[in-house]
Amino acid sequence: MSPAPAILSGLLALVTAAAVFQLKHAVRERERELAAIRQAIAEERARIRTLRADIAWLARPERIAAHAKELALEPMRVDRLIRIEELPDALHLELAGRTLVVELADGDAIELRLKPLLLPQAHKGARP
């Protein structure tokens, strides 16, 4: 056998070994990333379980009833409901939430959103 094919075979074996080593290194790096992601997912799931337990604890009816009693809150009564027209600033409330499109001098258009105007005297006439 001549030396050229042997040298070529040796170089090919070295290149293949280097490629396999590089691939092995890349796979190990991806495995580390995957393990870190799995760990982060497990931590987030634990946080979600904790938050759900907190919500369940805070939403207990007896706890809410105790806080309502401390704040002197009472259940809604039908006689306290009124129609929007009966409010002193009914027109302002009707306009709230509507939009107005305005064209600017440069041709662009902007959308204005209206908000209700609350005047200090409006609160005096409102029912408790």
At a glance:
The protein is mainly alpha-helical and 128 residues long. Helix content is 59%, strand content 8%. The chain is elongated and about 105 Å long.
Overview of the molecule:
By secondary structure, the protein is mostly helical. The chain folds into two domains: 3-68; 82-122, no CATH class. It is 59% helix and 8% strand. The chain has four helices and two strands. Strands 1-2 form a two-stranded antiparallel ribbon. The chain is elongated.
Number of strands: 2
Structure annotation, total helices: 4
Instruction: Give the integer mean of the pLDDT values.
Output: 85
Shape: elongated
Topology record:
Layout: H1 3-58, H2 61-70, H3 90-95, E1 99-103, E2 109-113, H4 122-125
Antiparallel strand pairs: 1-2
Which terms would index this structure?
about 130 residues, mainly alpha, 2 domains, two-stranded antiparallel ribbon, 4 helices, 2 strands, about 60% helix, elongated, disordered C terminus
